[in-house]
Structure prediction request, 614 residues.
Amino acid sequence: MILQALYDYYQRKRDDLPAEGLERKEIPFLIVLKPDGGFLHIEDTREGEGKKKRGKSFLIPQAVKKSVNVAANLLWGNLEYVLGEANPEKLAKAQAKSGKENAKYQQRLLEMHSAFKDNIQSLPESVRNTLRPVIAFLDRRDFSPLYADPLWPEIQTGANLSFKIAGEESPVCSLPEVLGSVGVRTEDIAGSGLCLITGEPDAIRRIHPPIKRVRGAQTSGADIISFNRNAFCSFGRGQGANAPVGVRAASAYTTALNHLLASEQCTQVGDATTVFWAERAHPLENWLSQLFDDPPKDNPDQGTQALRALYAMPLTGAAAVEESQTKFFVLGLAAPSKSRLTVRFWHVATVGELANHIQQHFKDLEIVRPQYVANPFLSLKTLLSAVAPPSAQRRDGDIDSLPPKLAGDFMHAILNGLPYPQPLLQAALNRIRAEQAKKQDNGKPAEHVTYARAALIKAWLNRHNRNHHPQEREIDMALDESCTHLSYRLGRLFAVLERIQQDAAGGPDKVNTTLRDSYFGSAMSTPGAVFPTIVRRNQHHMAKLRKEKPGLAVNRDKLMQAILNDGMDCTIGFPATLTLPDQGRFVIGYYQQRQALYEKSQTQPETSEEGSVQ
Prediction:
């Protein structure tokens, strides 16, 4: 199913994608030669500055599958293959080990360069005639002029290079006669048979072209289909013959997948490199990465704009996206080893179904936000970062420290409209508990129940109830004073008690250690052991408040009693423990009550009995 969908995508985009046996590749350096094979100079095709320098992309013969054996590309490669020159780092390591290792590396260099020259000699004579300057240069083997070129040190870093004949626009590996001669090597064929993808007779690929740009895989590429051990083979068939895919189909699906991995239709979801496409051209192909990825710094509203576009299609005269029956595919790949890929998730749905699920996801996330949060959009990466533990590299949350499958399971739940995975709620609560006493650099308390964490917990609860407890009412976007759920009321009560402590001290900045710092985590999980204590402490704060700000004391007392009068007794009515979902409700009650208190203080300043503004 996956390979068939990729093959169909190649057929749809074949006018824009390389033909069989070809690929687009950056070649940073070109050795420019005279017509007689003499060296002129090294040409730098890179553009940009610093680390953003990128080599120019050319249409060239597809890279061969690299392994422990020597395998040379046709007319391009690194320094070791093209010139038989040592990579300084590898040479230093070999020399540091032993003389035997050094000799072994020198022998391998000879084999690599010989393989490179053998590929040229295997070309038709008409093509070799075009390549006479290259053949003469390599046969002469006088590379001393290259060593004097100022770009030589950069070539030694392992960058790809090729040749260019003076007067030509393209490197030799991109010349039409070279590209026209490209075919599948005999050693890459495993007989003939029916292709599993097309159902037609074809030569069967023994080793498929490599898949590149998957996080964690080797830079030369990895396999999505491979059989290298007899235990995984059947009926005496080895490697590609065990799952017969024809030469044309193998080239098509790998070219399509590599194109997607290098395009904007790709995003990183945890350890899963995720690509997506439709069976026919559709705007959702361009929007999906914007909906799930962090917006760029130069366009912080990108995600919001994509979400608006998703809702606004009918207003532009287009059919509502929810009505589209176009199939849409989402593929998540991970690399548990350097050379092999696994499918982390595979999702097939109509564009309409997918759009409904995405819209529901963002609707579930809607929650009142603090004034300092200017952009309400929450990308998938923002949510995962909000619940991930921090690291030395990422103080705001390192997604790589989350369980490997969590991000993929989260994405799968969004795409299918299913409940979010339970570890996601656990991670959010753990992060909140860990940061309950966290301070900013200026010494002020840092937010522990952030906008992103509150939105995620609210969405988790609503989706959980929608699928498992449909009789439960959904949590609203803002404070719901009519909600009688015990854990939600406990969260509200904690927020009020914290605010009373701050009011009695003269403001939030006047309290060194708040109730939140000392008690939030335990109040959230074991309220029966904590609330009697903090309610008794509150009497001291209320007594002070009645003396200094009697009007404010009355308002706070009324609010606290309104919360308590819903069946909770201040001495015996607090449950011993709360389940994880109830801890989530506690957090939402706390968050929404705090936002309501802040908004009220901004619009209606509290007054004392004498009427003076406090």
Summary: The chain has 22 helices and twelve strands. Residues 22-180 form one domain. Residues 314-318, 607-614 have pLDDT under 50 and may be disordered. Residues 580-603 form the longest helix (24 residues).
